[in-house]
Amino acid sequence: MVFNDKTTSPASRAPGRTRVRPAGFPTRNEIMDFITTSDQPAGKREIAKAFGLKGQEKIALKALLKDMADEGLIDLGPARAFHKLGGVPKVTVLRIIDVDDTTLIATPERWEAEGQPAPRLRIVERGKRGALTVGDRILARTEEAGRGWIAHPMKKLAKSEEMLLGVVEEMADGKLWLRPVDKRIRKDTPISDLGSAKKGDLVLAEPTGRPPRISARVTDILGDPFAPRSFSLIAIHKHGIPNVFPEAVEEEAVLASNLPLHEDKREDLRHLPIVAIDPSDARDHDDAVWATPDDDEGNVGGYKAIVAIADVSYYVRPGSALDREARKRGNSVYFPDLVVPMLPHQLSSDMCSLRAGQDRAAMACHLVINAQGKVTSWRFTRAIIRVAAVLAYEDAQAAIDGTRDEPLLDVALRPLWDCWALLQKARNAREPLALDLPERRVVLDEWGKIVSVAVRERLDAHMLIEDYMIAANVAAAKALEQKKAPVMYRVHEPPSREKLVALKEYLATFEIDFALGQVIRPATFNHLIKRIEGAEEKEQIMVQILRSQTQAYYAPQNMGHFGLSLGSYGHFTSPIRRYADLLVHRALVGAHKLELPAPKGGAIPASSSLSVEDYENMARVGELISQHERRAMEAERETVDRYVAAFLAAHVGEIVKARITGVQNFGFFATVDGLGGDGLVPVSTMGAERFYFDEAGRALEGVESGDRYTVGQKLELRLAEADPINGSLRFELPDQPPSRGGPMKRDRTRPGAHRGRPTNVRHIGGKRGKHKR
Q1: How far is Cα 189 from Cα 485, in angstroms, rounded to an integer?
Q2: Which of 144, 464, 510, 599 lies 20 to 30 Å (CA to CA) from residue 558?
Q3: Interacting residues of 72 by C-beta distance below 8 A, sequence separation 6+
């Protein structure tokens, strides 16, 4: 018999491997064409069906496919579908790992082609934009496009299938388990492959196996979970926050920091006593302020003010490596022990930080404020400034109060406070949302150990700086609107009707009326707060009002800022730490013709104004940086919770003053007054009595006793557990016997154990008053 490409392969000529292909059998090239052009996964069954193969032909096909795999022509993917070796299966699982400008980049979750790097696929999103972000896993349809690959998302996969972050624990029987750092995960995972990790290590692991027999394979060792900075490290890894700058970005930062200031082409403001007022632990200083009475006859009783902001757009230019990295990060992330900056330290902590006594490039917002506090005009310049002093909020306030000597009191601080009195008039007139809720502050010593956790004091100095920044942000948005230039707005939409209905039902449990037919404005909520002034439940009602609000975001379409009661608002005042502000600066440079001479050498882009790409991608960039902001907020909050749990770990067993923050059918959550950190009181620990769950009233009520536990209620609780690894707390009622010491026991014996409502709780939907009180 004569052999040709239809019947043999070089591999099949080897001794003992002669295979005869039936007549009409597809060639290798035909099979390759089918695999690479099929619009669905091409497994053996699909190939046989496409070529009409039956019986013995299917056996021959199986042998040919094995030969092609042995020869390195094709590979078998996770869905048992073939694809070209070095290529990507038609349908496969991808993990989004990066952002290139505004395009998400993903790689195959499983890539086993030896010697070949995993391909980078460009994600093509359709329909609702912004649904995906870095770290997400998706099922996608893939195709080659030009010299690369693109992916069309089909389905976003569950978070539970992502990498596991936890601590290695050894049980009494010697078996090793991964204890999760995420307090929402209540189950430990058995470790099947420890690698070089040891007991007590904080590790990253990937899940292996299939439910219910999931185990963990350790991939990365992060170190001691209780070492200084580990709590921040946990959040960085868990949320996929970029925390290492590429070498090219660091090198460009050095080049950019050496750019000439062009003093002769900037407005020289170095003679003014401009001051920066910041938190005592601030890592960077990107804003400074100055004010003086206006001597213009047309503005009697008015003031002139300058809000000077670091000129970051001069150093970070569109299309540069610095710009791409800043957009990928979206914002700086602040932890109690460290900051993950948006820009390298060469810029964020040095050349773009407004240090006292040093010449710095700034974008100056000049404001004219009349006697009623209204900003009547504004102009923007590129300036050079020399900050007279950097003051902590507490020191500036003490100087004004007369309890601290300050050389700049009369020339700088008093004029700022007098001008602020005017700005307050305008603020009071527009009635922005006034929710004065406490903010936690974690204080560490020089070794990273916790000194205290306390509520940050709210001073006039804080509100003064806020009002100057708000005035500058409004001016920036309106100045760009006047020039018909693009604006990256800070948008805060009014509450949805659904949330307002929920708030109305909640307020009804306190016998407080809330009319839905009225026009809802921030003042509506302010008047509500005034009605409950002095009431014990004021703080809890303010929390519910806050929860009824929508989440602010960035977008090039103006929807106004409901919370601040402003029609146009854009972030301008923090370009060191927010990418949105950097875009606003670039737009101002272009709209007001503030461009400076191009850098020499060509290593740094010539223009510092908004680029065509910036303009065309404003909507997409707004979605990305809004996602990054939410990621940062969650990471920061979780890290503070871990520090609080670590601080309270020394007080387990003690009685603490607490407040109920949430009620569910399985128990209620409470937070320690003055510290924060939510902990659960399981209903199973509340004695033998049965409890009703009043969903509308957000309360648990005892059937026999009528004891009622509702959101906002203050009470004393026993601290039963404080877990610094995942930031969780657990409380018990003081009149109930304490549980055995040690951490809450986890069910490692029944992977599928049901977590339903405890048997002593019956769900009802009635409001307060429908059952025994």
Answers
A1: 54
A2: 464
A3: 85
User: Within 13 Å, how many C-alpha atoms sit on residue 246's CB side?
Assistant: 12
Residues with Cβ within 8 Å of residue 208, at least 6 apart in sequence: 192, 193, 214, 215, 216, 217
Lookup: tokens for 750: 């029944």
Highest mean pLDDT among 7-11, 410-414, 528-532: 410-414
Lowest-confidence segment of 23-37, 302-316, 470-484, 533-547 by average pLDDT:
23-37
Closest CA to 726 of 241, 335, 231, 233: 231
User: Are the CB atoms for 117 and 106 separated by under 8 Å?
Assistant: no
> From the CB of residue 518, how many other CB atoms can be counted at a distance below 10 Å?
8
Q: pLDDT tens digit string along 456-465?
A: 888 999 999 9
Sign of CA dihedral 20, 22, 24, 27: negative
- The torsion angle over the Cα atoms of residues 645, 647, 649 and 654, rounded to 10 degrees, is -110
How buried is 320 (Cβ within 10 angstroms: 0-12 exposed, 13-18 middle, 19+ buried)?
buried
Helix (H) or strand (E) holding 524, with range, is: helix 522-531
Q: Tokens 């510092």 identify what position?
A: 608
Q: Which of 224-233, 410-419, 711-720 has the lowest mean pLDDT?
A: 224-233
- Contact between 217 and 205 under an 8 Å Cβ cutoff? The reply is yes
* Residue 597: how many other CB atoms lie within 10 Å: 10
CA atoms of 97 and 138, how far apart (whole Å): 12
CB atoms closer than 10 angstroms to residue 419: 27
- Report the C-alpha gap between 119 and 96 in whole angstroms: 12
The strand pair at 676-682 and 728-732 is best described as parallel
pLDDT in tens, 680-702: 999 888 988 899 988 877 789 99
**What are 248's two structure tokens?**
């090219």
Dig out the tokens for 203 from the structure: 């590790």
Tell me if residue 582 falls in helix, strand or coil.
helix
Q: How many residues does the chain have?
A: 773
Determine contact, residues 641/648, Cβ cutoff 8 Å. no
Place of tokens 């091409």: 42
